[in-house]
Amino acid sequence: MSGGGFNVSVERKRGSQPALGTIVLVNSLATSGRMWDGVVARLPEDFDVVRFDQRDRGGPRGHSPFSLDDLVSDLFEVLDAEDVDKAHLAGVSLGGLVALRAAALMPERTQSAVAMCCAARFSTKVWVERGQQVRAEGIAPLVPQVINRWFTPEFQQREPSIVDQHRQMLASTDPVGYAFACDLLAESDVRDDLPMIKAPVLVISGEADSANPIDDQKLIVRGIPIARHEVLKNTAHLAPVAEPDLVASLVSDHARSNS
Fold it and tell me: How far is 91 from 88, CA to CA, in rounded Å?
């Protein structure tokens, strides 16, 4: 299914209905659903998997201002279209913020949640300045610095083809949608939502994440009634890309234990 500015991909369990439900994967700013390729390939077959492109990738929905709650509505619109009543939510960075807000707003539709490399409150100054820069200069000047936040130098040297794939993904992001997403990140704050989250939450940090350091995730864990924390060593911001085996295992184990 596609439309409205986001494309949807569904990977279904071989056979009939999944035994344990659906995992929905929500990507970060300036990535497409392809960022989850390595994780999806390693997830067990007893889950269906849904992933989709968010508004910053472009299309009509990304060409006017949008809020965090708009992205949450997109998520549930996608699930409605796939006849999924309740799901395990897993997101990274902006996607993690979406997963947390969705879990707070729609507890009856959230079986569990995973928030990776995100913060409950992002830096207003950083994202206001980033939005201004993109509006003035486009995406291209940002690419080198963002890649260095996404991946450690060791990973960039070890996996140049994966890094190049994500460099192209970043460079192809619609600057209008990206700038509106910057506005969203400058103003969004889910700290008051955290105590409202009833579903069990797994918070995953990248030890070498300079974009959203471990302390940001510790704050999330402290605020949620049922939460645990895992730290991935030698991993920067895009943990699902750098460590697909570990992330697939953590996500599927968390979903299985809460199915």
Answer: 10
